[in-house]
Amino acid sequence: MRYLNLKKLPILAEEYQEKYKDNLPFPHIVIDDFLDNPGEICDVFPDTGNFSFYEYKSPFENKLAFDQVAKFPKAIADLLAEMSAPEFLAFLEKLTGIDGLIPDPYYRGGGVHQSQRGGKLDVHIDFNIHPKLKLMRRLNVIIYLNKNWQESWHGDLQLWEGRNDNGKHELIRLHHRIYPVYNRLLIFSTTEKSYHGHPEPLDCPEGVTRNSIALYFYTADKPADGVDQHSTTYVKLPGEDDTLDELRKKRNEGRLNTTMAGKPPDH
Prior knowledge:
Layout: H1 8-22, E1 28-32, H2 38-44, E2 54-58, E3 61-66, H3 74-82, H4 86-96, E4 102-103, E5 111-115, E6 120-125, E7 136-144, E8 157-165, E9 168-178, E10 184-189, E11 195-198, E12 210-219, E13 233-234, H5 245-252, E14 259-261
Antiparallel strand pairs: 1-10, 2-3, 2-14, 3-5, 3-6, 4-12, 5-12, 6-11, 6-13, 7-10, 7-12, 8-9, 8-11
Helix pairs in contact: 1-4
């Protein structure tokens, strides 16, 4: 394999499995310098000058994404294949304690992500059941590919503690800011309480973008507590007024079209 160090994976899983389980506000881990040869991925990462991204644009999100592997540069397609292979699945299962993980051959909502100056993604919980495969979403795996990222540009993925009171989501406390630095791996459990996002608009220079690769993993069985199917669900920040409440409700129910260019799958 060109990008995953197979000798290192079991060692990392053993080293971080307890920390993963105990991390707040929900199980997660950050591992830096993860990939071998990350520069090969950065060198071919798509940009809007030569690639037709899906564009998600609404008051709650402003980002670019693409999931059609056949159209990716070979290096990115190869990395995605390595991260869907049995060796990486074994690493994830040992790290997280979740058995029977299944990669998504459609990369629904995943693939390559890019945000430009002004880009944002409000805090949310993710869609929980794959709309085509009907599998339960269990893990988010993200690799950040941004050289010389500055904290003043924002773009940090915020991990929030929150609660759901009879369908009304409320954020309680910000626990972590994870900046999208070069060759950083983030893994977290996808649950009904995994509130996350980068809600502050990017303040990076024009021409600088926030780039990442995302994969989501599933199981055939539901978690023990059971959940109802829902789409991506955006939640307002503490202290935010109610101006966008009705529009947010429409977005969460899939009644708000966020696509200004391209035709991304529903998420």
